[in-house]
Each structure stands twice: as structure tokens, then as C-alpha cells.
Fold this protein.
Amino acid sequence: MVAKVQGLMRIELASHAPTIIVSCVAMGFAGYLATFFENASWVAAEAAGTTSPSFAPSAILVAMATLPSIFVVLGVYALIDANEEALRYEVGVFCSQGLDGDTVIDVWSALYGWLPIAAYFLGLLGYLAFTPGVIANLQSGLPDIITGLFFITGMATLILIPFKLNGVLKTSPYTVVRS
Amino acid sequence: MARRHRPLRAVSLVFAGFVTLVLLSQLSAHFFAEAIPKHLLVENAAVIAGIQQTSTELAFAAAALGLVFAGAVLIIARQKVAADVDTYRATGLPPSSAFLRLLRSHSVAPLAWVAGAAAVTALVDIDFGLNALFPIDLAVSFAALLVVWLAFLTSLSFSQRGFEGRPGGRAG
């Protein structure tokens, strides 16, 4: 069974490589953009001496940091939506070879959910690594910022993407016939 | 209940999402400048310029990524639209009529979404004194990409041999 799942992962990774790469690049970019917004907010607050007039625009920047990943997750959802027919066909083929439908969903969730989340994390770290002074600016807030952004993105991705993939599985002719 | 035939719904989402992402990048510089009190603007001029430059670069990157993403979705959705072109060809429609029918059935929703997103974005840009032409240019690029892609699919289908219907047929 483990060998079958590993084989499935390899096949799916190879056959969906362009889509997965585009998703990962977009999520990496969203992570980069989010850290840029966070840094801009903290720099602005520091430059303003954290006085009251600076609070609202700084807070807006923090809120904006969560939005890029939401838009990109919607984009990944759109990619899966466009690929729906092919995925339905694939799930039929895999199920007829003795693989459980939920296993196929788990593999797809890893490719379209966990991999883009990992790319988002790399994007977050990429801005920190390639922009001098950011770590010093954010200092003690850095773990909270990364955790918060990661949590929001992870929730959005791991709710929306498996929801869509389960929809594909339920409407697959193989599943319908079996039920 | 039968599902509605919406092969390019995904494209609409991508178009509108990335136009909004460009707006977010543009707005970041504005809110950054707003966060700094007026009397501190001069001494923080270098920091503001740095943030504005990065914000502009990221807006361009978001636009480029949007075009790549939209291209990917269009390529994936190709088979669904190509089936419609083949049907039009099989009924004997000339290429121009098939293309017009294709535009009418597949481009209205994505173009409406991108036009809506661009209109809202341009209004926000004008309100905050930002460059409204940028998201509009991106929206026009998205529209051009979609129309060129549909024209390409039509010409590709009509350049193939076989499966032709009789001239004067009806479709749609």
C-alpha cells in the first residue's frame, strides 16, 4: 500500500508539475509580499514614534499582509477548478487500481495544499533573508508575525483546497457508480 | 439539477484576484506614508522612498505573476473551450462566426470580472492619488490575453483537417 501511495505521489507530482510550480511560485510571492507589508508597518510605527495617528495606517498594513495569500489560495482553487475534468478522470483510474479515494485526496492535498504552504513559508523567510535590517526591525514581534501569517494562510489553504478536491471526488463517475 | 457550463470561471477569479493584489501593493506605500506624521516626513524621506520603490516593484511583480497564472489557467482550460470550437466547426460555421460565438459564450464573465475589479481599483487609486493607469493596463492585458487565446484556439481548430460540416450550418 505504501509503495502504491509513493508511486501515486510520484506520478501526480510529475504530471501536475507545471500547475504545482505556478502555485508554489505564487504562494512564495504572497509570503514575500506579506513580510514586506509587515515590515513597512513596523518601520512606519517606529518612525512615527508609535503615536496615535500612525496606528490606523499601520494596522491597515498588518491586515493587508494576510490578503495576498488569500488571493493566491483563490487562484490555486481556480487552477483546480479548471483542472476538474482531468482530476475526475484520474481519481477513477486510481480507484479502479485499488487505491482508496481518500488516499488520492490526501496526495492531492499534499501537492496543492502543503507544498504551496511550504513555498509561502520560504517566501516569508526569503524577504527576511534578502532584505537587510528586517529582522532587527521586527525583533520580538517576528515569531508572532510569522506564526500569525502562517496560521491564517494554512487555514485558508487547508480548508478551501481539500473542500474543492472532495467535491471533485464526490462527483467522479467512479465514486458515483460505487455508491 | 444540472451544473451550469462555466469553463472559464477560474479565469475570472484569477483576473480579479491579481488586479486586487496589484492594488494592495500600490496601497502599501500610501499607508506607509500616511502612518508617518507630517513633521517627520522630511527626516524619513529615504525610508519612504525605499518602501515606495519596493512597493512599485512588487506591484509589477504581482502583475507579471498574474499574467503567468492566468496563462496557466487558460492552458489548463483549453480542452473545454476547444470542444466548443470543434462543435462550431462541425456544424459548418466559418471561423469568424465561430470566434464571435466563442467570445460571446466564454469571454463575457471573465471580462466582466476584470472590468469590475479594474474599475474599483482605479477609483481607489484616484481617491488615494496613486497611479490608476497601472491596474487598468493590467486589466487590458488580461482581456487581450483572453481574446488572443480564444482566437488562437479557433484558428488552431480550423487549421486541422477533417470533421468539417457543411457550410451554412447552425450552432449554439
The two ends of chain A are 23 Å apart (CA to CA). Chain A touches chain B through 39 residues (CB under 8 Å). Residues 66 and 149 of chain A are 6 Å apart (CA to CA). Chain A has one domain: 2-30+69-178.
